[in-house]
Write a structure and sequence with these properties.
Strand content: 5-15%
Helix content: 40-55%
Strand order of the largest sheet: 1-2-3
Number of helices: 7
Largest sheet: 3 strands, antiparallel
């Protein structure tokens, strides 16, 4: 019995339509946004960004000044002094590039419905994440039934991990690649390695997509 969850237009509603064998079922009301869960996710994103080698050079906290907590400085220490600035710039620009690519298409192909390896294009350029006219944000499911957070917070949280993963690669070819080649390789690796693996490992539609009362009742009715 095929089951698909289709996000509705955020300008009209933040709920979802559940489609079972061509029959559409609409859960009543809008899903509540959990302020506490969203705040914790936002703080997690901020801490992840502070740990990132691209922003760790700011040394905003004492822990960030330790070499083992700052891969950017660690990578710089692996190369000759004349290449120190080059490595720092490679890591910082790689981080910035991946964050931009993530919000252009990376999030969409990693965390939307699609094929087995890639998601779809429903969230390209963050389409549908928020509605400027209504001042609302699309909800994102969590691992807890009936608990939602703003999807933009979830996208930013995942962006920090996408960026740091690609930035960590720079240490493997320090002093051995041109700057342009580094950026090209990281963009390709992000697109054809990180994003599909993130989709295969982490994407799911949330517990309500599989166990909500409407879905269960529809499946029971279908089964007689």
């Amino acid at each position: 019995m095929p089951l698909v969850v289709i996000p509705r237009n955020p300008s009209t509603s933040t709920s979802t339509n559940v489609v079972i064998d061509g029959a559409v079922f609409t859960p009543p009301g809008e899903p509540p946004i959990s302020g506490g869960t969203g705040t914790l996710r936002y703080l997690g994103m901020a801490v992840g960004a502070l740990m990132d080698p691209a922003t760790g050079q700011l040394n905003l906290f004492p822990v960030s000044s330790r070499t083992e907590d700052n891969p950017q400085m660690f990578y710089g220490g692996l190369v000759r002094s004349k290449n120190m600035l080059s490595v720092l710039m490679q890591v910082m620009v790689t981080f910035s590039l991946i964050v931009v690519l993530w919000f252009i298409y990376g999030y969409s192909i990693a965390f939307t419905e699609g094929g087995a390896f890639f998601g779809g294009f429903d969230r390209v350029m963050m389409k549908g994440i928020w509605d400027n006219a209504a001042g609302t944000f699309a909800p994102a499911a969590t691992f807890s039934k009936g608990v939602y957070i703003p999807e933009i917070v979830f996208a930013a949280f995942q962006a920090s991990f996408a960026a740091i993963t690609c930035a960590l690669i720079v240490g493997s070819f320090a002093e051995r690649m041109k700057f342009s080649a580094v950026l090209l390789f990281c963009a390709l690796w992000f697109t054809f390695s990180y994003a599909p693996i993130a989709h295969m490992v982490w994407f799911w539609m949330g517990p309500d997509a599989y166990a909500s009362k409407e879905v269960v009742d529809a499946m029971n009715a279908k089964g007689g």
